[in-house]
Specification:
The structure holds two protein chains of two kinds. By secondary structure, chain A is an alpha+beta fold. Chain A has helices at 26-35, 43-46, 95-104, 118-138, 168-179, 181-185, 205-220, 242-251, 313-316, 321-326, 355-358, 393-401; strands at residues 67-69, 76-83, 109-112, 143-151, 157-162, 228-231, 256-262, 307-308, 311-312, 333-336, 348-349, 365-366, 382-387, 405-409, 415-422, 431-439, 445-452, 468-475, 492-498, 506-513, 520-527, 553-556, 559-563. Chain A contains twelve helices and 23 strands. In chain A, the strands form four sheets. Chain A has a 16-stranded mixed sheet that branches. Chain A has a three-stranded antiparallel sheet with strand order 15-17-20, with no helix packed on it. Chain A has a two-stranded antiparallel ribbon with strand order 8-9. In chain B, 20% of the residues lie in helices and 28% in strands. The chains are: A alpha+beta, B alpha+beta.
Chain lengths: 564, 183
């Protein structure tokens, strides 16, 4: 469908002016921010509204401006922001192999994210950068970002990445040297900084905030167009406390934008009897350690250290941690990645290089024999769909920054269009995924969902069947007093749309919120219906017995609705 | 008597590995109940330890073996108002308020697959609690030779969850997935 060029005059963006968000020349970015009064003092809390990229918290006193306006069916670009190569001590593939496999499995963009640390900072960066350049040249239809899997000081891992640019490698190198939890916690005698007790200990937390502010500063100064951070496998070890998510987001709202809704390693739970690793799906088989947040302790009701339908507990639990962030009006997006280190049934094994002294495992060795592993190739099982104006490095990142993101497993859907709009006074055009719209108090809000059902087989050779779509909603209640809050008790599934067994092509669902009297948010998820609790929620994955292909979900990012 | 300690713990190692080091330090000490705790009152979380020793103990030797201070809880009138991480640990162990139990009476008898009722009958574990499932007395618990029940509100509780083969397994496994930080 073509773009909708009708002008909506309540919209603040003005083409060709400093407020034109489409103009992404570096000088314009810095100048727009300056003119918009968003100098460094404006970073905390409000940055990005004028850019239409990162909606700020809900405030009744700001002029209503739709974010992510609905423009008909947009384009989705599938990708993966979490991929390892031989430059990680626990991984094995060449950059070129990973990019070729990603392309083969339909991805438009990938981020190369080897683990940060002393050896990576010292030896790997200079090797991976030219490998990435070569991969770009040999696969011109795939965007290959250079990134890092950052050991967040005081917390878990995170993807950090930038678009290609003159300063990209310099920024990534300085970032890793200054702020990687591995570098910071390694004793000076071993080449590190010796500044924090452990990579995950709480004395690292201020470094994490400084790190994100550093990236934000690189954007503000025009050294890079954009820089993004997504927290990876957030609940795996319980070391990402709720206040840390809030702190990251507040420190750098244009950079710290989300987390893996679903971790990689999705093959890890396949039964040993079926030739699998027999571990926890997602590699989630841990239990609390000394740096874990005590509020995540397993109980008779739940185990936050496990995946639920392949998704991280923080995302999978209705009214859980993710919802507690959204209920604040806080934009925070979820994704799905491969975390590909070693691919299940692939025949390669790690090379023999000494990573500690060379920064590389060396070329992988083809054994000719399928190996038992935890991961799938990029794009084989997990996809992060990003809505973007074009397939360009900066546009795809802006789509992610703005939350136009759907996390999909096993091709459970082929596409999704969401339109949320006021039926009375307010924003009648409406907005789409990741957006923010407004309605006059007491008016109705219409939600229209169109799902493109899967037209072909996924990479397990099966055409998956979507059984249902859940519409989840909850009130936006503003900033929490307790920064470690991890629940949103009023958020719930408001409607469950059944997909008819005979349905083909595109299915359409609508829901109307009548007489809306307070700000709220809504989001969608869908399932193949194979593994559900009695109330339609995902089931905790069983360690050693989790076939990922028979338990498929998608999660779409939220839309916020303000009341004026 | 109840002991508390702040052992020197090697960073970023598997819990089971740390447990083994701690229990090695108790060689020759007749401790029948040993728990690890996490003390979060300081800027950085610290692993502490509590132990119940029915007989005599050479505190200095134990402190040397653990690589950190050991205190004996003064239980004479129940009003010990001294504080510090070691004392807090000893109290938490004594009261079974919190902690993760690495040694407890009956542990050695539970190395195979046992009905839940037997786990309770043959050991100091008070309850077997299923995560998301009800546990019937006859439900098999596959211990895999590794049990780390937790202290909660005065009880020793073994958390279990459904596992492959239709059995229950402890929520804490001996060898969870290695997560490499590359450092």
């Amino acid at each position: 469908m073509s773009h909708d060029h009708s002008h909506d005059h309540s919209h603040e963006e003005v083409e060709g002016s400093w407020r034109d968000a489409q103009d992404d020349r570096p000088l314009s970015v810095a100048r727009r921010r300056f003119l918009a009064g968003l100098g460094t003092a404006g970073v905390a809390g409000t940055l990005g509204t004028a850019l239409g990229a990162t909606p700020a918290h809900a405030h009744g006193d700001r002029p209503a401006t739709p974010v992510n306006p609905w423009r008909g069916r947009g384009r989705w670009f599938a990708g993966d922001h979490h991929i390892h190569t031989k430059y990680s001590s626990d991984a094995q593939y060449e950059v070129a192999q990973q990019v070729a496999k990603a392309r083969e499995h339909g991805l438009d963009w990938v981020v190369i994210t080897d683990h940060g640390g002393v050896a990576h900072e010292k030896f790997s960066i200079d090797q991976v950068a030219p490998d990435i350049e070569r991969a770009r040249r040999s696969h011109r239809d795939v965007l290959v970002y250079q990134g890092l899997e950052w050991n967040i000081p005081g917390a878990e891992h995170a993807t950090v990445f930038l678009p290609p640019g003159r300063s990209t490698v310099d920024i990534l190198r300085a970032f890793e040297a200054g702020y990687d939890g591995g570098v910071l916690s390694t004793p000076v005698a071993n080449g590190g900084k010796g500044l924090i007790t452990r990579s995950t200990s709480a004395d690292g937390e201020p470094y994490a905030l400084a790190a994100l502010r550093y990236l934000e500063a690189q954007v503000l100064s025009g050294r890079t167009e954009i820089a993004l951070m997504f927290a990876n496998h957030p609940a795996r070890r319980g070391v990402d406390s709720p206040h840390e998510f809030r702190g990251w987001r507040d420190a750098a709202p244009g950079v710290a934008v989300g987390m893996e809704g679903a971790p990689g390693h999705q093959a890890a739970g396949i039964k040993a009897a079926d030739g699998g690793r027999g571990g926890g799906r997602g590699g989630y088989d841990a239990s609390p350690n000394q740096d874990s947040f005590p509020g995540y302790a397993p109980t008779a009701a739940e185990n936050p250290y496990r995946t639920y339908g392949g998704f991280d507990w923080m995302t999978a639990k209705v009214g859980g941690l993710w919802d507690s962030l959204l209920a604040e009006g806080r934009p925070w997006w979820v994704t799905a990645t491969s975390d590909a280190h070693g691919v299940h049934k692939d025949t390669h094994k790690q090379g023999t290089g000494d990573h500690a002294t060379t920064g590389s495992r060396g070329a992988p060795i083809d054994t000719g024999v399928p190996q038992v592993n935890s991961d799938y190739w990029p794009g084989f099982y997990s996809s992060t769909l990003v809505g973007a104006d074009s397939k360009s490095y900066v546009d795809v990142m802006r789509g992610m920054q703005g939350g136009k993101v759907v996390a999909v497993h096993g091709r459970i859907i082929d596409g999704l269009d969401l339109r949320v709009r006021s039926l009375g006074e307010g924003d009648n055009r409406g907005v789409t995924i990741g957006g923010r719209t407004f309605v006059r108090r007491g008016d109705d809000v219409e939600v229209v969902v169109e799902v493109d059902l899967t037209r072909g087989a996924n990479f397990a050779g099966v055409v998956p069947r979507l059984a249902k779509v859940d519409l989840i909603a909850g009130p936006v209640t503003g900033p929490v007093a307790d920064r470690d809050a991890l629940s949103a008790p009023a958020t719930r599934v408001v409607e469950q749309f059944e997909v008819a067994r005979s349905a083909r092509g595109t299915v359409r669902f609508t829901h109307t919120f009548r007489g809306v009297d307070r700000a709220f948010y809504l989001r969608l998820r869908g399932s193949d219906g194979n593994r559900l609790t009695s109330d339609g929620n995902p089931v905790m994955d069983v360690v050693g017995d989790a076939d990922p292909w028979s338990d498929l979900w998608f999660y779409a990012n939220p839309v916020f609705v303000d009341v004026i | 008597m109840w002991l508390g300690a702040v052992p020197a713990v090697p960073g970023e190692h598997r819990a089971a590995h740390v447990d083994a080091l701690l229990l090695d330090a108790f060689d020759g000490v007749a401790a029948d109940f040993v728990c690890t705790h996490v003390d979060r009152l300081g800027p950085v979380a610290v692993t502490t330890l509590s132990a119940h020793v029915p007989g005599e103990v050479d505190v200095d030797r134990l402190a040397e073996a653990l690589g950190g201070p050991v205190v004996v809880l003064d239980d004479s009138d129940g009003a010990d108002d001294s504080d510090g991480p070691a004392v807090r640990a000893a109290r938490a162990g004594r009261d079974r308020a919190d902690g993760r139990c690495v040694r407890f009476p009956g542990q050695d008898a539970l190395t195979g697959t046992h009905p839940a009722a037997e786990v309770v009958a043959r050991s100091a574990i008070d309850r077997v609690v299923g995560i998301g499932v009800e546990v019937a007395p006859t439900d098999p618990v596959e211990t895999l030779g590794f049990l780390r029940p937790v202290c909660r509100e005065g009880e020793l509780v073994l958390l279990v969850e459904p596992a492959v083969g239709g059995v229950l397994r402890p929520a804490e496994a001996e060898t969870p997935h290695e997560c490499c930080g590359g450092h």
